[in-house]
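Read as amino acids, tokens; as here:

___
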Amino acid sequence: MQESKRQKQIGQLLQKELSEIFQRMGFNVLEGGMISISAVRITPDLLEARVYLSMFQIADTHEMVNRIKERMGEIKKELGNRVGKQLRRIPEISLFLDDTLEYVFKMEELFKKIKDDEAGKENK
């Protein structure tokens, strides 16, 4: 189902504000890795936001998600202060891992391996 214009607007607003909150709280660069918010999807009733986190060079991604969830009350309070005038209710936030980056790296490795195998066959 396609998102409405309002859903997209709220998703973009939340993505921008959450990115700034993460940066202020120090979540964007941790332990030599990076965390970014790749997307925010809003339900049609505007009461739930699905936040997709992209993690680069983070050893234990599930542990990192749990650390963010522990501070969710603080994050939601800050978000309410920032967007309270634009929204009647702050949506419930659900965190999801966005593994697109990992998928891209795996696909690049496979293509490189196929190319190397073909080059090896041509040299024989």
